[in-house]
């Protein structure tokens, strides 16, 4: 999710020939030999289960424009889906400090609200398959993501903790979605990230399945059950042998999502998640 420097590289990759690799039928996933170990189908209640999910709040990262809340206006369960909704509204910034030196302190108000849900402190996994069926929001300024971070981020920091971006999408570049990994010796700060790209003219029209599998040798990315990108182990650093937790969020603006501004006429926008399923690879 820290894509400030990576964004320009992704735009260059977006027209490259590997963008449609997911269409290779020989890469269909065989899940018959994978055991479901955890899932949230979002079929009961009106709010995400607090036994499974926690919230990020306020301004968090990437100088994004949304203010994350725990309000049901921004996240709830409806019709068998987790709804993450971004709204155009003005709210005061609880961390505002006119003398503050950090970007999140210098904003007196926020002009958009949204939600970011995580399994941090609830569930984390090593060497699994994480699969999410979701419908993307649309419009310039939207930046939804499905991603994993290492549990040890509070002690070793980013990118040493490791990051797996299962799906990222920026609304100003429709019909494309992206995946990649970040670690100490390969990340966008160093300018050597290797993104995978989905290109689909109907990407925004309905639900699609985004998944990753990872083990001690590689990370694999799937779109609608078909492999489209693989990142193999390289270098000495491989943080993906330690537990990782899941994040589902809808950002607005920021270092990547806001590169071409925010279209206020698009709001409200909803990021819909039908289910999250985690499989053992054995």
From TrEMBL:
Gene Ontology BP annotations: carbohydrate metabolic process
Signal peptide: 1-19
InterPro entries membership: Beta-glucanase-like (IPR000757), ConA-like_dom_sf (IPR013320), Glycosyl_Hydrlase_16 (IPR050546)
Keywords, sorted A to Z: Hydrolase, Signal
The keyword Oxidoreductase is assigned to this record: no
Domain of life assignment: Bacteria
Positions of the GH16 domain: 16-282
GO MF terms held by the record: hydrolase activity, hydrolyzing O-glycosyl compounds
Pfam families from the UniProt entry: Glyco_hydro_16 (PF00722)
Cross-referenced SUPFAM superfamilies: Concanavalin A-like lectins/glucanases
Family: Belongs to the glycosyl hydrolase 16 family.
Name this protein carries in UniProt: Beta-glucanase
């Amino acid at each position: 999710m820290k894509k400030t420097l990576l964004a320009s590289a992704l735009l260059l990759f977006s027209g490259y020939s590997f963008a449609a690799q997911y269409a290779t039928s020989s890469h269909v996933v065989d899940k018959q030999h994978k055991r479901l170990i955890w899932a949230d189908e979002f079929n009961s209640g009106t709010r995400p289960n607090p036994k499974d999910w926690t919230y990020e709040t306020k301004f968090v990262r990437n100088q994004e424009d949304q203010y994350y809340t725990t309000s049901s206006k921004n996240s709830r369960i409806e019709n068998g889906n987790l709804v993450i909704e971004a709204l155009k509204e003005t709210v005061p910034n609880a961390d505002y400090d006119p003398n503050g030196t950090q970007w999140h302190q210098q904003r007196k108000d926020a002009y958009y609200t949204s939600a970011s849900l995580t399994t941090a402190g609830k569930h984390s996994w090593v060497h699994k398959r994480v699969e999410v069926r979701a419908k993307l929001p649309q419009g310039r300024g939207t930046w939804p993501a499905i991603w994993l971070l290492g549990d040890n981020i509070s002690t070793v920091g980013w990118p040493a903790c490791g990051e797996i971006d299962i799906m990222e999408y920026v609304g100003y570049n429709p019909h494309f979605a992206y995946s990649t990994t970040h670690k100490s010796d390969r990340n966008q700060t160093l300018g050597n990230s290797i993104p995978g790209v989905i290109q689909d003219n109907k990407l925004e029209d309905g639900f699609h399945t985004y998944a990753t599998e990872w083990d001690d040798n590689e990370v694999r990315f799937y779109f609608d059950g078909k492999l489209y990108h693989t990142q193999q182990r390289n270098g000495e650093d491989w943080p993906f042998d330690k537990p990782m937790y899941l994040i589902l969020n809808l950002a607005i603006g920021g270092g990547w999502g806001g590169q071409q501004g925010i279209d206020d006429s698009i709001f409200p926008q909803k990021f819909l998640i039908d289910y999250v399923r985690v499989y053992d690879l054995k």
